[in-house]
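Throughout our pipeline, every protein is held as a single compact record rather than as scattered files. The remainder of this section carries one protein's record, kept here as part of the documentation.

===
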Amino acid sequence: MKILLSAYACEPNKGSEPGVGWNWAIELVKFGHDVHVLTRANNKPVIDAYFAANNKPKTLHFLYYDCPVWIQRFKKENRGIHLYYLLWQWGAYQLVKHVHAEVNFDMVHHITFGVVRQPSFMGGLDIPFTFGPVGGGSPHRGD
C-alpha cells in the first residue's frame, strides 16, 4: 500500500512526538508498505545524517515542507506554535495535493502532532484518512 504519513515531528533517535513520527514510518515500511513521510524541512539534516550512516529502505521516502520565514517567527511566541502549526498544515496540504496527483497515494495517515486539538487538512485528499492515535489528555465536551 502507498501511504502518505503526515508527521510534522519526525526525527530518528528522539522521543516524544519526533520519535512517534519516525517509528511509525519505520514500522510501516517493515510491514511492506511504500511510505512517503511528510515532515518539516528543518528535520531534513538530521534524517539525511541518519541515512548517511544507516541503510535507507527503498520504500521510505520523505517530503519536506516549512512555512515561509516570516511565518516561522510565530513558533518563537509562547502560544504562536498553534498558529504556526495550523499554517504549516495548510501549506503542507497544498504541496501534497500536487504530489498526490503524481504519486496516487492509497491512504493518508496523520500521526503528529498527536493531539485532538490540532487539525489536519490531509483528509481533504479524498482518499482513506486515518487520524491518530491521538492523546494528550485534552478535555472534551461530554454528553
Q: What stands out?
A: The longest helix spans residues 80-103. The two ends are 38 Å apart (CA to CA). The domain at 2-131 is CATH 3.40.50 (Rossmann fold).
